[in-house]
Amino acid sequence: EKRLRGCLEKQKGWVAEDLESFKTRLHYIQLQLDQPDTVVALDRHLQALAEERPKQHRVFYLALPPFLFAKAVENLRERCWSKSGWNRVIVEKPFGKNGTQAAELTDSLKKYLDEKEIFRMDHYL
Known about the structure:
Elements: H1 2-9, H2 16-23, H3 36-49, E1 58-62, H4 66-79, E2 87-92, H5 99-109, E3 118-121
Parallel strand pairs: 1-2, 2-3
């Protein structure tokens, strides 16, 4: 909190209530993507947070080793996908170490996702 506060204090118009408001929006849910019960618990938590909203858009940020992406996406798709809004998956580095590996990873994700649902952040390619 000290580092964040130090950065925020340098911003014009910042007030202490901004940090407190931001902190109330942070939630930690321990998740093991290979255990369906934890993914279902995440879905319930997200539904409760969005209870008053007409649509529940979801963005899942995955910073995992490449061999875990497909299983993680499969579990999210089957157990934690919004039925009333759009869904996006951000897959972060490494997205393969070459074009062949990147293509293989893309193929594994496309079993569960449309291209418009995938956002890639890669530091190798």
